[in-house]
Write a structure and sequence with these properties.
The chain starts with a strand and ends with a helix. The longest helix is centred in the N-terminal third of the chain and has 18 residues. Strand 11, helix 11 and strand 12 form a beta-alpha-beta unit. It is globular and about 65 Å long. With 359 residues, the protein is an alpha/beta fold.
Length: 359
């Protein structure tokens, strides 16, 4: 069988899907349509047929999107796949439309609802309408949490019988090994993600400032690239000693190893891979009580959940964690690792995904 994988980011494919793609390639021929970027060479070097595809990930230029759809149709005609697998909104919509028109079975992965669903209004209605067209003949639609699945079935985008909920992409437990807590009286919080409003950075800025004003013994480290214009704000907060910003990092492991708790007050997620990876390494979590975050947190056992868009509640959870003794924090970290082993082992997630795709 020939399988075409369509995605918007080679780094994301490498970080979260390489085990799945390599598994599919054991008994099939795999092609990949993706923009050139970080880790692009990994797939080239493994002998996959690569179709370099430019995508304006966040833009809404109809001419560029029409060109993307045409590009997918051309790739499909050239590669002649027996199955198409897509990831992320634009790839799901335009790749799905191209697969449907070519009458080739296709599997779509909803890795998050995206900004359109968050903002609502006409943009949400447009995306829903486009998804209905793209997914009308879908073979299987994968979701990373039950909340996202319900949104799609409630809006009659996909019938329930074609939906499969997976525990995200899972986490590679060998690649992210458990690490003991290091002794340090200062409580160390870490944010990992794009620096943008929808990741809850404004609430975290506010809560971190209050922690400093209240004299709590803690520090905040941020890693991630700027998705929106927060550089001046970050510079200001660094000068005030409220946080330390380390920019984008290819390897998050040293930063996770050096923290007590990973914090993600996001507004929406498919499944937060940074939470899964940090939990696998044995770190406690504080995250928004939303689909895509709450699955990784058993409140009171391996961390705390906070109300979405609520800086006050986030501060309460941060201060509650700071007040714990070191032994209790370490217990939370061990609970995080056990949860990953029990529910999120990537080997089982990959096996389940391939089983559903090939059914």
């Amino acid at each position: 069988m020939k399988i075409l994988v369509i995605a918007n980011n080679a780094g994301g494919l490498y970080g979260f899907r390489k085990e799945l793609i390599n598994g599919l390639a054991e008994n099939n021929t795999v092609g990949i349509a993706v923009p050139r970027g970080r880790h692009f060479e990994y797939f080239e070097n493994r002998g996959y047929e690569i179709f370099e595809t430019d995508i304006d990930r966040r833009g809404m230029n109809p001419f560029k999107d029409r060109a993307l759809y045409a590009k997918y149709r051309k790739i499909i005609k050239e590669f002649e796949p027996d199955l198409i697998v897509t990831y992320t909104v634009k790839c799901n919509i335009y790749g799905g439309m191209a697969a449907r028109r070519a009458k080739i079975p296709y599997a779509v992965n909803i890795t998050g609802l995206g900004t359109a669903f968050e903002r609502g209004g006409w943009l949400k209605k447009l995306v829903i309408a486009m998804y209905k067209i793209a997914l009308k003949k879908v073979k299987v639609c994968f979701f990373e949490n039950e909340g996202n699945r319900k949104v799609f079935t409630d809006n009659k985008i996909v019938p329930a019988e074609k939906c499969v909920v997976l525990p995200g992409a899972g986490v590679n437990l060998e690649e992210y090994p458990y690490l003991e807590y290091t002794s340090d009286s200062t409580c160390r919080f870490l944010f990992i993600g794009r620096i943008m409003k929808e990741k809850g950075v404004e609430e975290l800025f506010s809560a971190a400032r209050r922690c400093k004003e209240e004299g709590l013994d803690c520090r905040f480290d941020f890693i991630g690239g700027f998705e929106e214009n927060y550089k001046d704000k970050i510079d200001e907060l660094q000068q005030e000693g409220i946080l330390r910003y380390h920019g984008f990092q290819n390897d998050i492991k040293p930063f996770v190893a050096d923290c007590d708790c990973v914090v993600l007050p996001s507004y929406h997620e498919g499944m937060s891979n940074t939470l899964l990876e940090s939990a696998a390494m044995g770190r406690a979590l504080i995250a928004s009580d939303i689909p895509g975050c709450r699955e990784a947190v058993v409140a009171g056992e391996n961390g705390f959940l906070c109300a979405r868009k609520d800086a006050e509640d986030l501060y309460r959870r941060l201060s509650e964690f700071i007040a714990l003794d070191p032994a209790r924090k370490a217990e939370m970290g061990k609970s995080s690792r056990k949860l990953m082993e029990d529910r999120f082992d990537k080997r089982r997630v990959v096996a389940k995904t391939i089983e559903e795709m090939m059914a």
